[in-house]
């Protein structure tokens, strides 16, 4: 169990998802939020991920701030997300997300095949482009070669990660200085995320809605109110109004005020104060 060095809410598949960076620079995404975005049952997908010996390596459990305080949650390393979501049952997702997942799977299949063909010196694209079946032995040799390359790549990752972390830190510092003057700051995005967690949970309990439907409805209402395609595009000047809007919606639903605790305000510190 560990705590991330940085968290941020980013839109994935039309739904705000909590992301977290580990101490070595690795980026992870909340499996719970990804399941809500696609319309998947969380516990079923956790069992599926844990049963897969390859995808299992991408799972990490982190202590993160939620509407109910610091809690443990399961996250998936970014590099593993495409391999996982391209094979999930997507019938419950919106048409837009279904289309993206379908093309992602097709792209993955074709990209892997083209990479192997290129390594083997064979024509890329459909297999009918290969004229001589005897050339398939080169295909197998290429697979073995790519396996060796991957092993060597993994052995040198520590050095690459350190260089990348230094470069990424410089870029994030510059981006933060440019972006936070216009759109929501890191802490503002985090606080709104927590408030929506409470709002959606109240809808689940009162209206007997599914988790996916409750969260989707809350985020859709917010994006429609501020006319943005992505949650993170809300302007900083609209932050107070957004907080008040969520609090009103919560109180109308439950009859009780939605308070902002001091812990919530401190949970998502701005990068400049870390």
Range of strand content: 5-15%
Mean residue pLDDT: 85
Radius of gyration: 22 Å
Order of helices and strands: EEEHHEEHHHHHHHH
Query: Distance between the terminal alpha carbons, to the nearest Å?
Result: 21 Å
Rough outline: elongated
Low-confidence stretches: 270-274
**Classification by helices and strands:** alpha+beta
How many extended strands? 5
How is the topology of this model organized?
Elements: E1 6-12, E2 15-21, E3 27-30, H1 31-38, H2 42-51, E4 59-66, E5 69-77, H3 78-85, H4 95-120, H5 136-155, H6 157-179, H7 186-207, H8 211-225, H9 239-254, H10 262-267
Antiparallel strand pairs: 1-2, 2-3, 3-5, 4-5
Helix pairs in contact: 1-8, 4-5, 7-8, 7-9
Structure in words:
- By secondary structure, the chain is an alpha+beta fold.
- It has helices at 31-38, 42-51, 78-85, 95-120, 136-155, 157-179, 186-207, 211-225, 239-254, 262-267, and strands at 6-12, 15-21, 27-30, 59-66, 69-77.
- The chain folds into three domains: 6-85, no CATH class; 95-155, no CATH class; 186-273, no CATH class.
- Strands 1-2-3-5-4 form a five-stranded antiparallel β-sheet.
- Strand 2 (15-21) and strand 3 (27-30) form a beta hairpin.
- Helix 4 (95-120) crosses helix 5, helix 7 packs across helix 8 and helix 7 packs parallel to helix 9.
- The protein starts with 5 loop residues before the first strand and ends in a 7-residue tail after the last helix.
- The model is unreliable at 270-274 (pLDDT under 50).
């Amino acid at each position: 169990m560990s705590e991330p060095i940085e968290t941020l809410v980013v839109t994935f598949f039309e739904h705000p998802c909590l992301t977290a960076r580990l101490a070595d620079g690795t980026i992870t995404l909340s499996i719970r939020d990804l399941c809500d975005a696609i319309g998947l049952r969380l516990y079923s997908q956790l069992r599926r991920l844990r049963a897969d010996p390859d995808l299992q390596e991408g799972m990490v459990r982190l202590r993160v701030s939620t509407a109910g305080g610091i809690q443990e949650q399961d996250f998936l390393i970014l590099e593993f997300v495409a391999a996982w979501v391209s094979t999930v049952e997507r019938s419950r997702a919106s048409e837009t997300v279904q289309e993206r997942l379908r093309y992602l799977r097709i792209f993955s299949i074709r990209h892997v095949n083209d990479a192997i063909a290129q390594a083997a010196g064979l024509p890329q694209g459909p297999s009918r482009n290969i004229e001589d079946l005897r050339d398939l032995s080169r295909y197998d040799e290429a697979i073995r070669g790519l396996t060796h390359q991957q092993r060597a790549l993994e052995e040198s990752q520590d050095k690459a990660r350190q260089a990348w972390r230094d470069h990424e830190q410089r870029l994030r510092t510059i981006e933060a200085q440019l972006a936070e003057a216009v759109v929501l700051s890191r802490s503002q995005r985090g606080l709104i995320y927590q408030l929506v967690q409470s709002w959606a949970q109240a809808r689940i309990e009162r209206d007997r809605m599914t988790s996916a439907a409750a969260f989707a409805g809350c985020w859709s209402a917010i994006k429609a109110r501020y006319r943005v395609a992505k949650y993170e595009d809300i302007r900083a000047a609209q932050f107070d109004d957004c907080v008040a809007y969520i609090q009103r919606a919560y109180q109308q639903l439950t009859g009780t005020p939605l308070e902002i605790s001091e812990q919530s305000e401190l949970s998502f510190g701005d990068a400049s104060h870390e």
